[in-house]
Amino acid sequence: MEQLRGSFFIGGDWVEPASDRRFTLVDASSGEAIGTVPEGVEADIDAAVAAARKALHASGWADASPAERASVIERFLAALTARSEDIARSVSTQNGMPIAVSRALEGGFSLGLGQYYVDLARSLGQPDIRPSQMGRETRVEHSPIGVVAAIIPWNFPVTLAISKIA
Fold first, then answer.
1. Alpha-carbon distance 6 to 58, whole Å?
2. In three state form, how does the secondary structure of 28-42 look?
3. What is the pTM of this model?
4. CATH number, span 64-166
């Protein structure tokens, strides 16, 4: 059985997992094992979060405007679009989703969802002034709060990842 991936991409480098535990990936249409990948454990998540926190400040991402962040996410979505057929086939192989559904939802809808968040981020640069109950105005400001670790379910992995990334 092929080892599909042996390490995690953390802090800009491929690093060995903290554990020898591995997941076996199974072709949902045949039941055949198609490869293995490392199973992330708490220490791997801690390392990824620590690296992300460091990068958040060192890269300037923490100070990036919503429009600047939107531009980065838009480039990410363009890269996903270029690989959408490969992504759809991988999702269908792993979870048994019909390829037409995978193309439509994981390849199409997820990219539209990402674009929705790009457009939303661009609108965050505009003042959000709302009337208050006391006849005055309230200014609402949206600020990023930092790094999170998110676990993505198996059923719609790309769509659910985009909803967290974007």
1. 28
2. CCCCCEEEEEECCCH
3. 0.80
4. 3.40.605.10
